[in-house]
Design goal:
Length: 223
């Protein structure tokens, strides 16, 4: 079985004026479909840059990155945008919910953007899985941080993406809500076989994953 994510000698160099700042220094990574992988490391180690490249948000400087059999190096911006829309869901530290919309509307808008229309069966399954049914008519200001993050996760997975990329999903949450969100991610992985790659600096958060990759100074140092 081919991996759903594969990188080879992946490098990224940012140029700040005449200064070159290496963020990734040759990353080799394999992720199997249905796996829950945590990538951990200190700030500035390159883990968020890696996630942005895997999500097609940033181009690598060199190397190869295959996601669901597609080589991002050969795709133009429009192709990558279409690929992200149908194959990848994103969850960030900031919830990024639209403040004037209810939770239901924030989730449903993702289905409309994808172009497949509203799927009530998928909507109900995700809402029940994440325990947000009673909050669907609430706007973000009327929800706790943990509830908002669960709505953000629902929005990310409502269109059944093959891959969920989560960048510090518990970074703005207290301990109790962090554990709730992590348990929900684990449930999504187990019940829907959702492939999840989570970036975190927190070893306790990483412990819910099947596998932990550690990065330092732009390289994978243990797997």
């Amino acid at each position: 079985m081919e991996p759903i994510i594969a990188t080879q000698d992946l490098k990224k160099v940012f140029r700040l004026g005449k200064v070159q700042v290496p963020a990734l220094r040759g990353v080799d990574l394999i992720v199997q479909e249905g796996e829950f992988l945590a990538v951990v490391g200190p700030s500035g180690c390159g883990k968020s840059t890696l996630l942005h490249i895997l999500g097609g948000l940033t181009n690598p400087t060199s190397g190869h990155v295959l996601v669901d059999g597609n080589d991002f190096i050969t795709m133009n911006d429009a192709d990558r945008t279409r690929f992200r829309r149908h194959k990848i869901g994103f969850v960030f530290q900031r919830f990024n919910l639209l403040p004037t919309l209810t939770a239901r509307q924030n989730i449903a808008i993702a289905q409309h953007i994808q172009g497949n229309g509203f799927n009530p069966h998928r909507f109900d399954a995700v809402a029940d899985m994440l325990g947000i049914r009673e909050k669907l008519n609430h706007k973000p200001f009327a929800m706790s941080g943990g509830e908002q993050q669960r709505v953000a996760i629902a929005r990310a997975v409502i269109c059944e993406p093959k891959i969920l990329l989560a960048d510090e999903p518990t970074g703005n949450l207290d301990t109790e809500n962090s554990q709730i969100v992590l348990n929900m991610l684990r449930a999504l992985n187990r019940s829907f076989r959702q492939t999840i790659l989570m970036i975190t600096h927190n070893p306790e958060a990483a412990a819910v994953a099947d596998r932990v990759v550690r990065m330092r100074d732009g390289r994978v140092v243990s797997d």
